[in-house]
């Protein structure tokens, strides 16, 4: 079987298109590359959707935590502590079994026990907590001059937030937020190891890499392939976020811009 | 209820909390020493050693950490067996990798095939510890390398003026002072390490995640005196609370440690303490 055929068979295996049976017997390099790459579809899906949906909640949490009002501040603080203080792995397990027990009472929760929705919700809440903390930090370090200028222009309430506070917060938080995006992306690999079933062996990249390592008993091929894919995507994230960051900072002089530094914080 | 919570299986569950704490207690110093070694190697003036140190620091970047865990456990196991195979059975001619099999002679197996159960468990646990130490050692090396460079230049110049050698400067000036710069990073690392402990489950150790799954699962009347439905959610809730508690305690301890370490240091924190005392 040529490599092109393998790609045709397995490129979309992880979302259920193409050959149903996973390769058996002698595994070629091409098969490993294709299947692990196919699994990356899930990682990218979880990463992008969770990041974009988590962004809104993160902003709300940051504003809540910085608020003077106890009733807004305390819930935000507790939410952030809950999700930052416990391992994501346990959160996945808890989320899965939580949805499972809901499902026995209400059939409405049926889709929540599958990875595409259930794990996504956990990731969404998790990344909201982490980015909320980042945004909160940025909110605290907004230069006093900026808000004073807003006051001088007669801006207050919502317009002040939308036109002065929020953009400055994003600008300050952006380098840290880029790191958060990278780690969120890396932590998507936990999904299929934490209760959420890989239905019909449709898993993510690490799921397939692990599959090959188990079958061939040789970890030295699938894991480096996985590493290569992840480094590639990490570079894409850095590039994309860099472009957005440059747009956010487009009115500032070169040296006033905060530089992005890749600072791995690993494991959540 | 109290009878249910004290069954033999539950005792194993409680012991596994100890396993987690034991892992933390062993791994933290081990990873720190790996990190110290890595940072020292990266600072070295001997080029290959410095490359090795920097390479070690760099390997963990850009790749998901669980991939490392899954990789190292098999890789280390195979590396040990490979070495033992060559030492113990030099006249073995078959290749070790035959297709999809990894075959070593019986004497080189780790642990030996006839070893008792606890040896297998201990071996699995120590492999896990070593894996954790290697991965976290790299993170610690990164932090310590930065901290060593953060020690003020003037301090080093003073040491030189006193006629200290490079080695003396390192051990007497840099090492005592670097901890205050390293502590925020190391504290962060500790938090990360505690949160990584559930991954023991993936490394095949019977840890709290394993027992929570086992015990919480549906138990019929045929297997136990205490049949119950699917309680896994509650078991994992307990784990969640356990980890939150661990995080909270660590935060408090680290804050105290930081206060203790900044005393008399040439940093903003130390200055603030001096002002408050005066």
Short description:
The complex is a heterodimer of chains A (about 270) and B (about 280). Chain A is mostly helical.
Classified by CATH, the class of chain A is Mainly Alpha
Q: Superfamily at the CATH H level of chain A? A: MetI-like
Q: How many separate domains make up the residues of chain A?
A: 1
In CATH terms, the superfamily of chain B is MetI-like
Order of helices and strands of chain A: HHHHHHHHH
Helical segment count of chain A: 9
From the structure provided, what is the oligomeric state, counting identical versus distinct chains? Answer: heterodimer
| Count of discrete alpha- or pi-helical segments spanning 4 or more residues of chain B | 10
Radius of gyration of chain A: 22 Å
Tell me the span between the first and last alpha carbons of chain A. Answer: 41 Å
Largest interface (CB within 8 Å) is between:
A-B, 45 and 43 residues
**Strand percentage of chain A, roughly?**
under 5%
- The CATH class label of chain B is Mainly Alpha
Strand content of chain B: under 5%
The total strand number of chain A stands at: 0
Report helical residue fraction of chain A: 55-70%
Per CATH, the architecture of chain B is Orthogonal Bundle
Structure description:
The complex is a heterodimer of chains A (268) and B (278). Chain A has a single domain, classed as MetI-like (MetI-like fold, Orthogonal Bundle), CATH 1.10.3720.10. Chain A contains nine helices and no strands. Chain A has 268 residues and is mainly alpha-helical. The mean pLDDT of chain A is 86. The longest helix of chain A has 38 residues, at 29-66. The two termini of chain A are 41 Å apart. Chain B is an all-alpha fold. Chain B has a single domain (2-277), classed as MetI-like (MetI-like fold, Orthogonal Bundle). Helix content of chain B is 72%, strand content 1%. Chain B has ten helices and two strands. Chain B has a two-stranded antiparallel sheet. In chain B, helix 2 (8-43) runs antiparallel to helix 3. Chain B is flat and about 70 Å long. Chain B starts with a helix and ends with a helix. The model of chain B has no long low-confidence stretch (mean pLDDT 79). Classes of the chains: A mainly alpha (268), B mainly alpha (278). The interface between A and B is large, with 45 and 43 residues.
């Amino acid at each position: 079987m040529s490599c092109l055929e393998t790609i045709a068979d397995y490129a979309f295996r992880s979302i259920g298109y193409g050959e149903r049976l996973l390769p058996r017997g002698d595994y070629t390099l091409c098969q490993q590359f294709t299947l692990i790459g196919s699994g990356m579809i899930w990682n990218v899906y979880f990463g992008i959707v969770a990041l974009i949906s988590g962004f809104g909640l993160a902003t709300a949490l940051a504003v809540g935590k910085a608020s003077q009002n106890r009733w807004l501040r305390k819930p935000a603080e507790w939410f952030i502590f809950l999700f930052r203080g416990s391992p994501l792995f346990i959160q996945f397990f808890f989320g899965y079994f939580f949805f499972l027990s809901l499902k026995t009472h209400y059939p409405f929760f049926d889709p929540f026990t599958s990875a595409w929705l259930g794990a996504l919700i956990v990731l969404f809440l998790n990344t909201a907590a982490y980015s909320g903390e980042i945004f909160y930090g940025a909110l605290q370090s907004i230069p006093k001059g900026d808000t004073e200028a807003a006051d001088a222009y007669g801006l207050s309430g919502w317009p002040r937030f939308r036109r002065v506070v929020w953009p400055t917060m994003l600008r300050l938080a952006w380098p840290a937020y880029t790191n958060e995006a990278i780690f969120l992306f890396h932590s998507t690999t936990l999904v299929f190891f934490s209760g959420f079933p890989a239905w019909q062996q449709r898993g993510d990249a690490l799921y397939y890499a692990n599959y090959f390592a188990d079958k061939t008993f040789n970890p030295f091929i699938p894991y480096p392939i996985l590493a290569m894919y992840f480094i590639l995507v990490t570079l894409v994230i850095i590039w994309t976020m860099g472009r957005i960051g440059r747009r956010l900072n487009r009115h500032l002089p070169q040296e006033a811009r905060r530089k992005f530094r890749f600072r791995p914080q690993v494991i959540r | 209820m109290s009878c249910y919570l004290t069954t033999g299986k539950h005792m194993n569950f409680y012991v596994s909390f100890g396993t987690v704490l034991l892992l933390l207690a062993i791994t933290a110093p081990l990873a720190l020493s790996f990190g110290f070694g890595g940072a020292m190697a990266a600072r070295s003036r001997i080029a290959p050693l410095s490359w090795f140190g920097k390479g070690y620091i760099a390997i963990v970047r850009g790749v998901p950490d669980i991939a490392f865990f899954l990789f190292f456990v098999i890789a280390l196991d195979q590396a040990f067996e490979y070495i033992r195979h060559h030492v113990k059975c030099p006249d073995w001619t078959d290749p070790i990798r035959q297709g999809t099999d990894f075959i070593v002679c019986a004497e080189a197996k780790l642990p030996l095939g006839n070893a008792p159960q606890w040896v297998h468990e201990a071996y699995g646990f120590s492999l896990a510890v070593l894996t954790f130490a290697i991965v976290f050692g790299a993170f610690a090396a990164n932090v310590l390398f930065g901290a060593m460079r953060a020690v003020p230049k003037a301090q080093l110049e003073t040491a030189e003026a006193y006629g200290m050698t490079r080695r003396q400067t390192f051990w007497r000036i840099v090492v005592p002072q670097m901890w205050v710069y390293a502590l925020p990073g190391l504290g962060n690392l500790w938090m990360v390490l505690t949160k990584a402990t559930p991954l023991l489950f993936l490394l095949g150790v019977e840890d709290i995640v394993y027992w929570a799954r086992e015990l919480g699962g549906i138990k019929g009347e045929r297997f136990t005196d205490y049949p119950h439905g699917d309680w896994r959610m509650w078991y994992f809730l307990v784990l969640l609370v356990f980890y939150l508690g661990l995080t909270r305690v660590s935060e408090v301890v680290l804050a105290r440690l930081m206060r203790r370490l900044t005393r008399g240091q040439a940093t903003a924190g130390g200055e603030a303490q001096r002002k408050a005392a005066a």
